[in-house]
Amino acid sequence: MDLNVIPKIKHANSDNFFLLAGPCAIEGEEMALRIAEKVVEITDKLNIPYVFKGSFKKANRSRIDSFTGIGDEKALKILRKVSETFDVPTVTDIHEISDAAMAAEYVDVLQIPAFLVRQTDLVVAAAETGKVVNLKKGQFMSPGAMQHAVQKVKDAGSDKAWITDRGTMFGYQDMIVDFRGIPEMRAFAPTVLDVTHSLQQPNQTSGVTGGRPDMIGTIARAGIAAGVDGLFIETHFDPTNAKSDGANMLNIAYLEKLLTDLTAIRKVINTL
C-alpha cells in the first residue's frame, strides 16, 4: 500500500506496519501534545509510520452524562497543533455529514465509526473531501461485507480507503477478532487492526464500557502475524482517569516494549 498519499507521513518505505495511536478523545492541549511527543519518539526510533489519533467529539456514548468533548473547534485546533508541532499526520472520527468538510480542514484522515459505516451519505461526504477514509468494520458485519463500504468510497471518486477491524459482537458484553477476516479484507483495501476497541466489553449495566487491556499484547501480536497493514492503539498516560474508553486503553508506559516486539515479529513475517 502507498502510505505516501498521507501528508507528513514518515518512514513510509520502512516495510513496517503503520500505527494510528493516541488518546480516545481530545481532553485538552497539554495531554494531546504530551502523548504525541512520546509516541513520535518511539515510532521514530522503530521506523514505524505514525498517524496521531484523537476524537474531536464522542457522539456514541452509553449515557447522556458521559464525556463527549471539549468543543468541536477547540479539539480540532488541538489536532492541528499536534500536526504542526511534531510534523505528523492526524486522524479523527466523524459522525455527521457536516463533520466531514469541517474536520477535513484540520486533519489528514477521516474515520467512519463502526456503528455508522453503513451510512452511505456519511461515507460519501468523507470520500468527497479527498482525504483518506478509514472505515471501521461494524461489530455486526462480516469481513466480506466491508467491500461494499470500500466501493462507496470508490464510487464517490476516491481510491483512498482503509478498513479497520475492531472486533465482532460475541454475545451482549464481549468482542472477538476473527483473524480469518484480515486476509479477506486486505483483498479489497489496506487493513488495520484496532487492538484496543477489539478488547472492549460493551453494554455493561453501569453504562460504562469495560475492557481487557491485559490482552492488548496478545491481540496485537496475532494481528501482525496475520499480516495486517497497520495497527490502531488508543493510549494514555493515565487510562484509569481518562475521560473516554479508559477501560481498554494501553498505558503509554508499555507502548515502546510492545511496538519493539511487534516490529521484530513484522521483520520475521516479511521474510516468509
UniProtKB/TrEMBL annotation:
GO biological process terms on file: lipopolysaccharide biosynthetic process
KW Protein biosynthesis (keyword) present: no
Main location: cytoplasm
EC code(s) of this entry: 2.5.1.55
A single Gene Ontology CC term: cytoplasm
Catalytic activity annotation: D-arabinose 5-phosphate + phosphoenolpyruvate + H2O = 3-deoxy-alpha-D-manno-2-octulosonate-8-phosphate + phosphate
Domain annotation DAHP synthetase I/KDSA: ranges: 8-261
Pfam families (alphabetical): DAHP_synth_1 (PF00793)
Molecular function GO labels: 3-deoxy-8-phosphooctulonate synthase activity
Pathway(s) this gene product operates in, as recorded in its UniProt entry: Carbohydrate biosynthesis; 3-deoxy-D-manno-octulosonate biosynthesis; 3-deoxy-D-manno-octulosonate from D-ribulose 5-phosphate: step 2/3; Bacterial outer membrane biogenesis; lipopolysaccharide biosynthesis
SUPFAM superfamilies cross-referenced by the UniProt entry: Aldolase
Subcellular location: Cytoplasm
Domain of life: Bacteria
Keywords from the UniProt entry: Cytoplasm, Transferase
Membership in a protein family: Belongs to the KdsA family.
Name listed for the protein in its UniProt record: 3-deoxy-8-phosphooctulonate synthase
Organism: Wenyingzhuangia fucanilytica
